Amino acid sequence: MENQTNEKAEVNMHEEMRRAFALLSGKWKLEIMWLLHQRIYRFGELRKAIPGVTQHMLTAQLRELERDGLVSRTVFAEVPPRVEYEITQKARGLGPTMEALTAWWNEYGKSVPVKANPRGRKPVNNGRP
């Protein structure tokens, strides 16, 4: 009789990490998560805090993060309606990753070349050159 292995019981970490990366892939998701890791934001605040993001793209990225259980959206019954976004408890588990990225950036960030011309909405300069 041959040795049989239960392939379903074996975890393929490469595939699992691909699933994890997919949750945060997207041009703006990491930046959104970084901001929401700091505090709760309203939609307009997020849009202003992320130069280059369009309203359409921010909405799409927030919906995906909400669908994946990383962001919660709270609508307050006020006139006009107020909507707030915050990270979920599941997303708070990424805190050590955010802290590690901050430490890495503090050590190596100055050696990374600055990229010019982000795509999307241009940052507002309030009439300044």
From TrEMBL:
UniProt GO BP: regulation of DNA-templated transcription
Keywords of this entry: DNA-binding, Transcription, Transcription regulation
Presence of the UniProt keyword DNA-binding in the record: yes
Transcription regulation among keywords: yes
InterPro entries linked to this entry: ArsR-like_HTH, HTH_HxlR, WH-like_DNA-bd_sf, WH_DNA-bd_sf
Top-level taxon of the source organism: Bacteria
An example Gene Ontology molecular-function term: DNA binding
Domain HTH hxlR-type residues, every copy: 15-113
SUPFAM superfamilies attached to this UniProt entry: Winged helix' DNA-binding domain
Record protein name field: Helix-turn-helix transcriptional regulator
Protein species of origin: Pseudomonas bijieensis
